Amino acid sequence: MDIKNNEELIEALVKAAGAAFLSLKNSTKEHFYFYVFVFDEGLHPYISAWSYEALEKSIIEQQISDDDKSWWKWDCADSPYADYGYDEFFGKVSELLDNRASKLSDDELYEDEWKARIDFMEEAMKRLDASGLFGTGKERENVVINVEQVPPDDDGAEYNRALRLNPSSALLSEYLETCEKPENT
After folding, report:
1. pTM of structure
2. Nearest CA to 49 among 78, 86, 15, 29?
3. Which of 7, 80, 94, 169 could, after both became Cys, cross-link 141 (CB 3.0–4.6 A)?
4. 38 closest CA partner among 69, 75, 92, 71
C-alpha cells in the first residue's frame, strides 16, 4: 500500500476514534482512566474505555471477586463501552479497510496488513494524545491509553505499546502488571 493511502487511513482512524472517545466523554460525564483502541479478527478496529463509575457498577453487577478486580479494571472486552460509537463514527474507516483488504490475499491480510493496521492505530492514538484529548500534564498521568489486540498477543507488543503511548505513572505501572511482558525485560 502506498504512503498516501496509509496516511488517509491514519487520518480516518484519528477522526473516528477521536469522535467516539469525545462523544463517550461528553455523553456520560464519567471519569475515564482507560481509553483503548481494539483490533480483533474482524479486522476492523473499535474503541473501548473504562471509567471509575462504570467499573464500580460493573464489579457489583458481575459480582467480580476481589482477586479478579485487578485485571477486570483493564479488560477492554468487558467494558460497557466496548464498541462504543462504531456504527456512528467508523463508516469511512470500514470503507477504507475493506478496500485495502480486497487487494490482498488472506496471507497478506493476516500478516503484514494485520501489523500495519495495529501500527496505524497506534499512530492515531499518538495523534489524539498530542491533541490533548486524554488530558495534559498531571491530568494525563491519571489516564492510560493503548492499542490492544483481541485475543491478546503473547509477544509483549501490548506492553511495549503502552510504554510508548503513556507517560510514566502509578496508573501505567498498575496496567502493565496485567500485560504480557516481552521476553527480554
Report:
1. 0.93
2. 78
3. 169
4. 75
Contact by Cβ (8 Å): 34, 166: no
CB 71 within 8 A of CB 50: no
Amino acid at 96: L
All three cell numbers of 120? 496505524
Give the per-residue pLDDT at 37: 96
**Distance (Å) of CA 100 to CA 6, 24, 41, 103, 131:** 10, 29, 16, 6, 28
| Residues 40 and 32: beta-carbon distance below 8 Å | no
Q: Do 71 and 178 form a contact (C-beta atoms < 8 A)?
A: yes
- Rounded to 5 degrees, what angle do the CA atoms 138, 142, 145 make? 115
Residue 74 CB: number of other CB atoms within 10 A?
A: 22
DSSP letters spanning 44-86: --EEEEEEHHHHHHHHHHTT--TTTHHHHTT-GGGSTTTTTTH
User: What pLDDT is stored for residue 141 in this prediction?
Assistant: 94
**158-164, long-range: CB < 8 A, 24+ apart:** 159/185, 161/122, 164/122
